[in-house]
């Protein structure tokens, strides 16, 4: 070969981008543990769908609950039943009397009759068995636990722990650190600013809660994560006063950074929360407000219905879950190649029993017919899982290509509720990180991995037998 041609040839080899084939080779030869390790170290985009309370790992709640005492918040949790109430009044409304590990503030505990007070212990006085019970009570890890346990018991148990704005700030810090560890650069959590209280039970107004959050977000441990964030305010859709909650949430978001969007949550099998109920209210709110985005849970239900279609009419740009979108052909056509995105939560959907196994999940159909999708974690504290696990499930169950993995991360930034300059910046960061990672792993294979071992939490251990030593 003439010298000039061979020089060009060598130059081409050196500058050629890593081909996607390396990932097919990797999948064919790697163990599950090595695949998890690769996905853990892999730079990622954002998580656009997670609830801050449901994202707290059980040990975080326990530790933060105890640490809250320095700010005057002392928590008690129910560790036994003394049959203090008769059949006439068991309190079956929101938190049934017999529910173990309900956690309440000391000020509320003091108002209980003596018999009931003896059922509780301060969090820092639990013995090892009780500590384990407290933690187990907020993780969905048993085969017989499912949707009912999740919707009707886990949240109620957390109780007053979710009403302490300083504890919430520390929870945000831990959550952001954990996401940054997994290589994310953007998060858009649902963090409520409503329903908080002082240690004596005096309510704290949402605007004041937002101020507390803003102060917390300036602290070094959060800034050092390097993450970019925006917040969503969610409302519970099936309650009698949901329209008023929507108004309050919308008005709150309009004037409180870093809030940018309103979401609607709550069981869709409760038909009182159907999407079109909110159309008049949203039209009224759009008369005055110009800066509130909508991402709304829709189609997270077993039956076919028009919830996804109706939710687009409400003005949502993103759909949470969108499971039954697949039963609505006209709306499927509308979604192909955008402009709407479906936030996919694979682990959540399995554990909440929308599917028996992943062969029934519509995710690959959406992904491979050009419907924009991204992976997210929903309530990972309660699943005891990570963002890496979501990618692992997707690769393992649906044989994702490397390009598809990158597409998912790009979508999680392209559909973020940020201004275009921020979006471009995030995409640029992601692209440069992922191409560096890709060329390193494509060249060195498995030996490029292992600088820090992947987290192996409960879900990945139970479901795929990849367990911490
Ligand atoms: Zn959700």
Number of structural units classed as domains: 2
The assigned CATH architecture of the largest domain is Alpha-Beta Barrel
CATH topology term of the largest domain: TIM Barrel
Q: Count every beta strand, where a strand is a DSSP E run of 2 or more residues.
A: 14
Beta-strand portion reads: 5-15%
* CATH C-level of the largest domain: Alpha Beta
Please identify the structural class as seen in this structure.
Answer: alpha/beta
Describe the protein's architecture and organization.
The chain is an alpha/beta fold and 469 residues long. It folds into 2 domains: 39-56 and 164-438, Metal-dependent hydrolases (TIM Barrel, Alpha-Beta Barrel), CATH 3.20.20; 58-157, no CATH class. It contains 23 helices and 14 strands. The chain has helices at residues 3-15, 21-29, 32-41, 52-55, 58-67, 106-110, 114-117, 128-136, 147-158, 165-181, 206-217, 220-223, 242-254, 279-286, 307-314, 329-335, 346-351, 363-368, 380-383, 387-398, 402-414, 420-444, 458-464; strands at 46-47, 75-78, 103-105, 120-122, 186-187, 196-197, 203-204, 228-229, 231-236, 259-265, 293-298, 318-321, 341-344, 373-375. The strands form 4 sheets. Strands 9-10-11-12-13-14 form a 6-stranded parallel beta sheet. It has a 3-stranded parallel beta sheet with strand order 1-5-8. Helix 3 crosses helix 20 (387-398) and helix 5 packs across helix 10 (165-181). It is globular. Bound molecules: zinc ion. Residues 49, 51, 265, 297, 320, 378 line the site of zinc ion (ZN).
């Amino acid at each position: 070969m003439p010298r000039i041609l061979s020089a060009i040839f060598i130059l081409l080899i050196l500058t050629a981008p890593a081909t996607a084939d390396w990932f097919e080779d990797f999948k064919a030869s790697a163990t599950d543990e090595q695949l998890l390790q690769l996905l853990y170290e892999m730079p990622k985009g954002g998580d656009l769908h997670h609830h801050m309370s449901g994202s707290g790992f059980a040990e975080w709640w326990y530790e933060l609950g105890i640490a809250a005492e320095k700010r005057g918040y002392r928590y008690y949790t129910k560790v036994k039943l003394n049959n203090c109430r008769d059949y006439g009044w068991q309190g079956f409304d929101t938190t049934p009397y017999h529910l173990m590990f309900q956690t309440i503030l000391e000020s509320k505990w003091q108002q209980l009759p003596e018999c009931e007070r003896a059922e509780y212990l301060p969090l820092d006085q639990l013995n090892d068995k009780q500590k384990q019970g407290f933690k187990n009570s907020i993780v969905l890890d048993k085969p017989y636990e499912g949707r009912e346990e999740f919707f009707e018991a886990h949240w109620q148990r957390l109780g007053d722990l979710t009403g302490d704005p300083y504890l919430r700030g520390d929870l945000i810090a831990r959550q952001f650190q954990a996401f940054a560890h997994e290589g994310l650069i953007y998060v858009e959590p649902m963090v409520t600013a409503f329903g908080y209280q002082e240690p004596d039970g005096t309510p704290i107004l949402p605007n004041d809660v937002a101020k507390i959050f803003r102060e917390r977000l300036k602290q070094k441990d959060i800034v050092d994560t390097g993450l970019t964030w925006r917040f969503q305010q969610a409302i519970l859709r099936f309650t009698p006063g949901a329209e008023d909650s929507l108004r309050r949430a919308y008005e709150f978001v309009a004037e409180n950074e870093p809030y940018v969007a309103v979401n609607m949550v709550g069981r869709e099998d409760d038909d009182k929360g159907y999407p079109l109920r909110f159309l008049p209210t949203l039209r009224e709110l759009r008369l005055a407000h110009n800066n509130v985005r909508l991402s709304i849970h829709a189609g997270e239900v077993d039956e076919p219905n028009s919830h996804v279609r109706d939710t687009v009419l409400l003005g949502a740009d993103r759909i949470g879950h969108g499971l039954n979108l697949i039963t609505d052909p006209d709306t499927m056509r509308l979604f192909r190649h955008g402009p709407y995105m479906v936030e996919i939560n694979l682990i959540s959907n399995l554990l909440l029993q929308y599917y028996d196994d992943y062969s029934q999940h519509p995710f690959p159909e959406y992904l491979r017919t050009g419907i924009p999708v991204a992976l997210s974690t929903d309530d990972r504290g309660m699943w005891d899982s990570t963002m890496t696990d979501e990618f692992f499930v997707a690769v393992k169950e649906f044989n994702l290509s490397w390009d598809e993995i990158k597409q998912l991360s790009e979508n999680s930034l392209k559909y973020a509720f940020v201004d275009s300059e921020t979006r471009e910046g995030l995409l640029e960061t992601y692209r440069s990180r992922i191409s560096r990672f890709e060329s390193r792993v494509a060249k060195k294979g498995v030996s490029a991995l292992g600088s820090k071992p992947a987290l192996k939490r409960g879900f990945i251990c139970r479901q795929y037998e990849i367990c911490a030593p």
